[in-house]
Amino acid sequence: MRRLFPNVYEGWLIVAASAFYITLMSGAINYGFGTIFTPLRDEFGWGVAATALAFSVRQEASGIAAPAIGMINDRFGPQRTVALGVLVLSGAVLALSFIQQIWQFYLVMLLVSVGTSSVGGPVGMAAVTTWFERRRATALALLTIGGGLAGVIVVPIAILVAGLGWRGAVRVEAIVLLVAGLIPATTTRYRPTQHHQPMDGLPLQMNAAGDAPLAIAPRWGIPVMRAVRTRSFAMLSVGLAGITFGTASITVLQIPYLESRGIPSAAAAFSVTFYALSSLIGRLGFGVLADRFNKRMMMATCIGMLAVGLALLPLVHTLWQALAVLLLLGPGFGGTVPVRAAMIADNYGTRYFGTLNGIATFVRTIGSALGPLIVGFTVDRTGAYEAGWLLAAAVAATGLVCVVLERPPEALQTEARRAAAEGDPTAWEPDAVPAH
């Protein structure tokens, strides 16, 4: 890709490669698995909660694996991490097509979670944050476009399920994920210490005299054990868990919920595409705004939109009403994706971003694991979704409070920047082993 586009800043090539695969992966896994939810229940006779539990297991296992994947990424670099993820993910998706028992379903979903953690957004984000400073949130927003565009893939996956059955459709997905994985596996990397292109792809700033470029600030980072003990990291992580409690419930249960309201399956599948595409408004809009305004306030705005949208879901009875509510939920969810990563990089630096983002992801996926499970449990107990959606709205509101109260650890930031400027050997070199 560097040979094909020699005049393009390499950071943008890494953004494009990661976004491409995230689109396919999110379409096949995050959104596409919703199309096999009902066929699985029909074939095996599983309940809503039992089936949703497998998706919760995938979310939580992904969170458990995230810190380890982050450490591997910090240690060996994103190229090897992504290659490993592609192999594990495609193999697990293929294995899904052969399951016969529910325990096999849970086991396969565990493997899927490891694969998605190794090849998904967190690894790409870790690489992208080293290539951008002034345009960091914008670059991360473009990286996460794939998560929104992925909704478009739901319709062809639904057609595959209808034509080939859910097992045949899953096998096609496995082949596509394996072949397409060559692009990010060979492209994604950290920015080298001495790279011929300036940071952000922008001209070097000149000093006050206008006769010499200012030195690029060395790559810095607050050590992991010090960062995770800060009040800032705790508040941000818990806030993110509150967000994903609701967003994961929507992703898993949106189609069956709308079907329970009498909306046809095809229209319900279209709503997923609409939700995903509307998230692009938030991803791009809040990503650009976060480079210009306070990131914490941008995140709070996104969570507020989510909480209001979740509270309105029980009032939905028609497709048009669902689309109106999704215009709050989609952009609200989409905006949280690039802004949360930019906040972590700004607050704690990029030196240990992979590990810190992995730990935050672990806490965040506690919410995404509990959300579908608890909402599904309320459906089995009450026969309706209303109580579950209202609970999800309350949890999201709690996350809003945490984010509003969060403040960056300024003293530790100053200390970490000074250590990097004074030549700490692990503060800049991308290939150095982090001294935790």
The number of helical elements comes to 18
Quaternary assembly: single chain
Let me know the number of strands.
Answer: 0
Overall mean confidence score, pLDDT: 77
Q: β content, as a range?
A: under 5%
- State the secondary-structure class: mainly alpha
- Rg calc: 21 Å
CA-based shape: globular
Low-confidence stretches: 206-215, 427-436
Q: Summarize the biggest pleated sheet.
A: none
Reading the helices and strands in chain order gives: HHHHHHHHHHHHHHHHHH
Q: Helix content range of the residues, please? A: over 70%
What does this structure look like?
The protein has 436 residues and is mainly α. The protein is 74% helix and 0% strand. The protein is built from 18 helices and no strands. The chain has helices spanning 10-31, 37-44, 48-76, 78-96, 102-119, 121-129, 136-143, 145-149, 154-180, 182-187, 224-227, 231-260, 265-290, 295-312, 319-348, 353-382, 386-405, 410-421. Helix 6 packs antiparallel against helix 7, helix 7 runs antiparallel to helix 13 and helix 12 packs antiparallel against helix 15 (319-348). The protein starts with 9 loop residues before the first helix and ends in a 15-residue tail after the last helix.
Question: Secondary-structure map with pairings?
Answer:
Elements: H1 10-31, H2 37-44, H3 48-76, H4 78-96, H5 102-119, H6 121-129, H7 136-143, H8 145-149, H9 154-180, H10 182-187, H11 224-227, H12 231-260, H13 265-290, H14 295-312, H15 319-348, H16 353-382, H17 386-405, H18 410-421
Helix pairs in contact: 1-6, 1-7, 1-9, 3-4, 3-5, 3-16, 4-5, 4-9, 6-7, 6-16, 7-13, 7-15, 12-13, 12-15, 12-16, 12-17, 13-14, 13-15, 14-15, 14-17, 16-17
